[in-house]
Amino acid sequence: MPFPRIVKSAPARRDEILDAAQRLFAGNGYDSTSVSQIIAAVGVSKGAFYHHFESKEDLVEALACRYARQTAALTEAELSDPTLDAFSKLAGFLGTMRRHKTETAAELRATFEPMFRAENLQLFERTQRAVTEVVRPILTRIIVEGVAEQTFDTPDPESAAETIMHLMTSNRELIVELYQTRDRLHFERLSQRLLDKMEYLGTVIDRILGLPEGSIELADRSALDALACALDRPPTAA
Fold it and tell me: Which domain range does residue 141 map to?
């Protein structure tokens, strides 16, 4: 007697495709993973795949958006805690993002490396827009609370959040070079340059929010050290 065909909802099927793509990207690398392999792993038709995604680039954008949502979900209890002031919520949110990146660094590098290729500026911009749509409302919410309780001093919380998001995604050229190098010494030099720049951007955000210099921490040595996971592997084809 044949087994009944399982019909899944569109969101469930979409997540199943994303799960398979993420596993294959992490295990084989983006370039070595084909759409056909993803389709085979899920067990769907090409038509079902292309109903949700037009290309592998669409998958990268959707995975980045999902990763941002998953990270945000880790902070929801903290962000909803009435005993915390807005600065504690902001510091907790930024800290959770850094820790999650460190914990998933190898998978992130394998999945999102295409974004940081010199020729893929359009993919990077698409992906950053998708992530911004997730993160900016959270930052705005925190800043609005901070202004109301006089923890932050800024006249336009929404513009402040937008500016902060722009600052946090302003390091693409340096990250492109960081991703492309296979020389450990060069990687260390680039890492230090990125850390120094992130420290400076933290002071800029302090000024935007009317905080004492040194309040906001963006730099994380451990996250960059974790990205060194690919230094001893051969580079993937562009």
Answer: 60-230
